[in-house]
Specification:
mainly alpha
Length: about 80
């Protein structure tokens, strides 16, 4: 009898580092094909109350939370900062 390998959980990292890197490369290529290339994921801890407020504001504006936060970060941290790196 063959055993069934359990599938990975939602946020579980693969056990093989090479597979993990290749998965990220594949995801970047699919995002680039859509005209959007994001190179890093930002994880922050917020309270459940703040998370709820963020989601409500995004819903009222008719945008996704990710898009709303990307716009906020782009406004707060503009690309042109006077030549400093």
């Amino acid at each position: 009898m063959t055993s069934i390998k359990p599938s990975r959980g939602f946020a579980e990292r693969p056990s093989d580092a090479d597979a993990w890197i290749k998965t990220a490369d594949r995801n970047e290529r699919s995002a680039a094909s859509k005209g959007e290339q994001f190179t890093a994921r930002l994880t922050i801890d917020v309270t459940p109350d703040l998370r709820g407020r963020i989601k409500i504001v995004a819903f009222r504006r008719g945008v996704t939370v990710a898009d709303m936060l990307r716009d906020l970060l782009a406004r707060e941290f503009p690309r042109d900062d006077g030549g400093q790196s």
